[in-house]
Amino acid sequence: MERVANITRDTKETQISLELNIDGEGNASVDTGIGFFNHMLEAFTKHGLFDMNCKCGGDIEVDGHHTVEDTGIVLGQAIKQALGDKTGIRRFGNFILPMDDALVLCAIDLCGRPYLSFDYTFKTPMIGEFDTELIKEFFQAISYSAMMNIHIKVLSGENGHHIAEAMFKAFAKALDEATTVDPRIQGVQSTKGTL
Description:
By secondary structure, this protein is an alpha+beta fold. The chain has four helices and ten strands; from the N terminus they run E-E-E-H-E-H-E-E-E-E-E-H-E-H. It has helices at residues 35-48, 65-83, 133-146, 160-179; strands at residues 4-10, 14-21, 28-31, 51-58, 92-99, 102-109, 115-119, 126-127, 130-131, 149-156. The strands form three sheets. It has a four-stranded mixed sheet, with helices on one face. Helix 1 (35-48) packs parallel to helix 4 and helix 2 packs parallel to helix 3. The longest helix is centred in the C-terminal third of the chain and has 20 residues, at 160-179.
């Protein structure tokens, strides 16, 4: 069964179309109008071995907030749709990712309950034309629209670019682990019988 999703979102602030294949090869076509954000989404796709096409037109002349948050909403919806009833998946995933000076932990649970623990405040307000406050907003949006727990903790690091990129890559690796189908799992990985 193909684990794919196609989501569109059309508001007065953003127009987004996103295709996601959980069982991809790491191929990305991303255009959000924000260079650093494109780079982060491409890193997420590559390191999670997902395939993703994402096109976003947003009111970036105001700022990047609506574009980044709404893309998180749509990506979360795509993850949820692609996984369906979550039969056979491992459910939990975690990864500690080094990137030069940065070391970032990400742990997730595809439990059907939203929760974000984001344990970091960026020292630099901007990376290129990207507002670093929006990284937390992005993961918050994914958590609520995908109905998943996400914990992100910076263990060490100084460079904001490295820390941000390690977050996106660690999230990708954790999500890849959590969405992996394990043939030993019958139904869903829960004593409740549902996720």
